[in-house]
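Structure ticket #2291
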Amino acid sequence: MVATDTVQLTDRQRSVRDAVGDICDEFDAAYWREHDAEGEYPHDFVNALAEEGWLGVLLPEEYGGKGYSTEEAVAMMYTIARSGAGFSGAQTVHAAIYNSAPLVNYGSEELKSDLLPRVASGDAWIQCFSLTEPKAGSESTAIETEAVRDGDEYVINGEKLWTSRIDVSDYLVLAARTTPREEVEKKTEGVSLFLVDIERGHEAGSLDLEEIDKTASGVVSSFRVTYDDLRVPADRLIGVEDEGFYQVLDGLNEERLVIAAETVGLGELAVEKGVDYANEREVFGRAIGQNQAIQHPLAAGHARLQAAKQFTFAAAKRTGDEDRKAVGAWANTAKYLAAEAAFEAADAAVQTHGGRGIDRAYDVERYLREARLTRLVPVTQELALNYLGENVLGLPRSY
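Resolution: structure written out below.
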């Protein structure tokens, strides 16, 4: 086994790693391979985490959560990915953990008291955030889905893309314009967040789902969603009307650090698979791992991953810094480094396997698909570099 215990963890991080690792040990490589191939959500895995309260890792203790911080979340999600679940396995619970953040920070006390304890216990899932739109893409302020006040309700109409896990969620957080873009001084104004009861939306005939036939992260389904006169009670507005975009930004950097940790876990998994195969496979009378053409790409992948890992875990300790721009720099750097390292590592693992690299039975083809995805989500590598160029290097804004 490749030694990757290179980061000094706190006592609490070690406790999280061990507890979550024990759960992950119950789900082997075959479990994830089969669920990915079938496009099946891993209910057993997620339920096992929920039963131990891990979906409430970031929720305050007063609402039944564990009350932990980004440091512990990084350890938790890294452990899940590294266990064999990969990036997609971590993504099956990632949203359940982070979609509650707007409610914690901005929701009414009545809403928090009712819903958050159920989220912490796993009895209610907020697995879905509906933001991206076909025309807006990464330009989130350009969304056109609108929410119009009608008495004690909002009526929502619009179309969203890449809305994931709506098929396994009880609620979703929806971003919509409550003031048209042309009527606000800043393009970041006029967006609001809403908590949507998915079952109620289906019963009213206001949700139309079209599943996207994608090639990565098979255990998580994604959809094009059309909202047709969806009525949402006014008390399900999260926070202050027209300030939803700022609510989305709050906590975004911390989430990117967790994404980076998941990505590092995936990359280490790929390197280990490559090393194991390189030691076992013999050609021309010797193990292929004896050849530098095999050794060097795997060694380089390992080195890059350990650098990204060190940066990610170190940055997680600094998320309480009041300088949010600095936290943003750490988060975007970690995300960029981790995605580049994981992709190179997964590619090396596939190449090491030769023709077997595209055989599902060896898993590395899945790791490569997932590693490629990490260069696109939650933001592209180019957007991460844009942030660094403008906010760290002091270069002119490019967009």
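Closing remark: The mean pLDDT is 96.
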